[in-house]
C-alpha cells in the first residue's frame, strides 16, 4: 500500500527499532511507496512512511528495488563530499559519504547477508541508514 511521506522532524529524528518477521508487511508498503515516487526518489526508510523500524528500500541501477532489514554499515572507505535531497525535507544539504561500504542486513526472508556496495548505491544506503539512526541531512 502506498503511504504518505512523513515530514515530522521530531519523529524522523527518533532512532528506529529493529525489525522482526511480523514487520514484513512494512517491506511491501515501503517498496510500493518507493515505486510510486520512482521519478524523484531512489531510496526510502520506513520512518519516511511513519513507521519506526530499521527497514530501508533501495532502487539499484533503476532496475530493481531491494529491501534491507536491520542494515548495519560494517566498514566504509573513500570519503567524499555529496549534496543530497530528501522527500521528507525541504532543499538540499551537503554531507560526507563513502564511496564503498560493507553492509550486513537481512533480506525479506530474514536471511543474513553481508555485501559491498559502491557509488550511488552506497550513497543511497548511507542516507537511508542515517534515517534509521535518526540522523537527517
UniProtKB/TrEMBL annotation:
Keyword Hydrolase: yes
InterPro entries in the record: Peptide_deformylase, Peptide_deformylase_sf
Gene3D superfamilies per record: Peptide deformylase (3.90.45.10)
Keywords from the UniProt entry: Hydrolase
Keyword presence, Hydrolase: yes
Molecular function terms from GO: peptide deformylase activity
Enzyme Commission number, as recorded: 3.5.1.88
Pfam families: Pep_deformylase
PANTHER family: PEPTIDE DEFORMYLASE
Entry's family note: Belongs to the polypeptide deformylase family.
Identification of the protein by name: Peptide deformylase
Amino acid at each position: 500500500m502506498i503511504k504518505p511521506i512523513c515530514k515530522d522532524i521530531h519523529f524522523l529524528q527518533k532512532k528506529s527499532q529493529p525489525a522482526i518477521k511480523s514487520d514484513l508487511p512494512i517491506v511491501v508498503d515501503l517498496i510500493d511507496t518507493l515505486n510510486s515516487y520512482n521519478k524523484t526518489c531512489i531510496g526510502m526508510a520506513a520512518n519516511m512512511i511513519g513507521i519506526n523500524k530499521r527497514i530501508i528500500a533501495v532502487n539499484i541501477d533503476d532496475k530493481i528495488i531491494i529491501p534491507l532489514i536491520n542494515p548495519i554499515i560494517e566498514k566504509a572507505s573513500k570519503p567524499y563530499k555529496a549534496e543530497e535531497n530528501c522527500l521528507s525535507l525541504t532543499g538540499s544539504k551537503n554531507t560526507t559519504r563513502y564511496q564503498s561500504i560493507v553492509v550486513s542486513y537481512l533480506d525479506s526472508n530474514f536471511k543474513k547477508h553481508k555485501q559491498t556496495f559502491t557509488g550511488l548505491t552506497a550513497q543511497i544506503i548511507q542516507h537511508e541508514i542515517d534515517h534509521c539512526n535518526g540522523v537527517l541531512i
